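Pipeline run #58 for the internal structure catalog. This entry was flagged by the ingest filter as a single-chain record with no existing model, so it goes straight to prediction. Upstream metadata was stripped on purpose; only the residue string is passed forward. Reviewer on rotation: M.T. Logging verbosity set to normal.
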Amino acid sequence: MVNKLIKFSVKISLTLMLTFSALTSFSQDGEKLFKANCASCHNPVKNATGPKMQGVLQKWIDAGEEELIYQWVSNPSKLYNSGKSKMAKAIWDWSPTAMTPQGHLSREEVESIFTYVDNYAPPVAAVGGGNLASNDTFSNDSDSSDYWWWIISFILIFVLFAILGVRRELTAAVAAKEGKEFDSTSTFATNAREWLLRNWFVTMLLIVGVALFSGIELFGRAYQLGVYEDYMPSQPVAYSHKLHAGKMGIECKYCHHSAEKSKHAGIPSVNVCMNCHAIVHEGPEYGTEEIDKLHKAAGYNKNKQTYILDEFGDRIEEPIVWNKAHNLPDHVYFSHAQHVHTNTANIDCRQCHGPVQNYTLGRVSTIDEVNAYAATDEGMERGLIQLTKPLLTMGWCIECHNKKEIDLTSSGYYEEIHKRIKLRADVNNKIFEDDKVTVKELGGWECAKCHY
């Protein structure tokens, strides 16, 4: 009897697990289909360009038009013009905007979309989402490991003193048993000093070792002065590069539009953000909290879908104050246009900024991240090279100028320089040793190029 109950319980459990798995997979498929085909106009729980979709299937069922909703999704205009659907007319009266036909979707795929939207629950916004987003998204693993190292060190020190205490008691017990005298007033410091004097050679080795370690550590830390790798300041808005540049594939220069024609890449104005967020009012992680900050900065009323004007007809705006992540010393000249423009160096943004598509808030990358990305097929396709010096340091710039090869087929003012180099092999014979021209060989190591 017990065995039968166990077998029955196992069968029930497996059945429930398989059913749950199937429903989860079905819902996940529906989520992908919704985002690919519907999300540009519809939100599951809020009206957007089109009406909210949660509960829509039930409304059509209640109206006795369950089968017609699939015809509506496949070809809305055809069903509306046929005059046989009251729901189609009601939707057109609500918003006379032609819906894009989705005839490529099968009935099963449409059903999975309805399953997803009916089970959709809005994400819960993180507490203090805006300014704390950087800390929530990028946990500092090194701080955590340092914390554990300190705990282990304290434990080891405690164990060491405990062992020394036990050793002292055992020594006293052995001395008492053998009838020898034991100085109970001697302290740990006294014993340590006597041991160091007796073992003077080991003591000298310890002193030299500590001195060498301290010197190396001191010089190592000195070399880190002015190095700000992995620096990520907090921001007033929790903007996600991972979402915009990664998942959505937005080109860097769409937002940083002055990179090709100016010294600075530039921070996008709120108007650039509003190109999308005049319609997109909710994000996948923080809901409406962060996008509401953009609307406030732009003076935009999302409910009325219009800009707020003062008595003089000007927009009421509140500029966003962003915190700068990448800083170069004042005596250094760097031009984005000279490095990014297609007619000059045409360097991919990731050579200096790393795989930005994986970041949330803007931050200074690390040379390890850049090199890891440069070693990928995508990185090699983009022409990234691997370097050894920390980012935003002089050694990093010089190393790049020494390794980066110039494209001799590029157009622009380089053509005349290339021509002169080829005609003056007696002066520039080093160029022909490796059959390539680097930035260094075009004067990239001249001090006045960056300092003047």
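catalog note: Confidence is low (pLDDT under 50) at residues 1-26, 125-142.
catalog note: The domain at 16-118 is CATH 1.10.760.10 (Cytochrome Bc1 Complex; Chain D, domain 2).
status: ready for reviewer M.T.
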